[in-house]
Specification:
single chain, alpha+beta, about 25% helix
């Protein structure tokens, strides 16, 4: 199973084919650590605030379209891992929305579907006995893990507009794939939950837009593990409130700047082996 930083590397360089290849935006210099406790933003509706006894939302900050609340956070990786930070987005949405979930059950988490989670398939470089799965077990395990990918993306508004397919679009645009981490279809009555690994790369088109959209795959849509381009009609689209988007973009830049030399170092170490 690939390690988490390889997944981040893949996200960092991937822009869907309809988007113009773009360089990383300018980022601040790396610091020794990140104040992740302060790198948090939330948005929620008035109804959500009333239900859970929260302060009233500020004007023009409420999500819409069935998203009742969203929370952005920055999280560290594993305690003994690579030292990378990760950008996460939690969505609390009406559970009658026709969203496709990774698995059949009421709840699930991708962390259960990685080899380090289970002692009998966990790799140990100090041991002479390395785990080995049968082809059928390996195929089953990897297929289940893959269901959490290619389900969601972050995109500029109007990313699906035909003009954006031209060689020289007039406005900045782009899209980047994300992955589900965990979900619960019935967290509270009428309320579902999704946690998304956003990745933290920053592309130049992100600076040129006032907000971005979260695309979630519709129930019954095709399996995008077998197709590169995501077709707009297969996704529900939700707009991030502009104030929250500006906060997210600023923190993504900090995380990207911090992670960049670590990713380069990890890549060098892996190539030298």
């Amino acid at each position: 199973m690939k390690k988490p930083f390889l997944a981040l590397l893949l996200i960092a360089v991937l822009v869907w084919p309809a988007a113009i290849p773009s360089a990383y935006a300018k980022e601040p210099a790396q610091s020794s650590s990140l104040p992740i406790e302060q790198m948090r933003a939330v948005a929620y509706t008035k109804e959500f605030a009333q239900r859970f006894a929260l302060p009233d939302p500020e004007p023009s900050t409420e999500p819409s379209g069935g998203i009742q609340a969203m929370e952005f956070t920055v999280e560290p990786g594993a305690k003994h891992g690579s030292g990378l930070y990760y950008c996460k987005l939690r969505l609390y949405l009406s559970n009658d929305l026709p969203i496709a979930y990774p698995e059949e059950g009421v709840a699930g988490a991708q962390r259960m579907l990685i080899f380090p989670a289970h002692f009998f398939v966990r790799s140990n470089p100090d041991s002479k006995h390395q785990p080995k799965l049968s082809p059928s077990d390996g195929q089953h395990f990897n297929e289940r893990n893959g269901r959490y990918n290619r389900m969601t993306m972050l995109a500029s508004p109007g990313y699906d507009h035909p003009e954006f397919l031209s060689a020289s679009p007039k406005v900045p645009y782009g899209g980047i794939g994300m992955a589900y981490e965990e979900y619960h279809r019935d967290l509270f009555p009428g309320l579902a939950y999704l946690k998304i690994d956003m990745g933290c790369p920053v592309f130049s088109w992100m600076d040129g837009i006032k907000t971005a959209e979260i695309w979630l795959k519709r129930e019954g849509a095709k399996d995008y593990r077998k197709q590169i381009r995501m077709e707009p009609q297969d996704f529900l689209k939700f707009t991030i409130p502009p104030k929250m988007y500006r906060q997210i973009l600023s923190w993504r830049k900090e995380v990207a700047a911090y992670n960049r030399p670590l990713i380069e170092k990890l890549g060098t170490e892996r190539r030298s082996k």
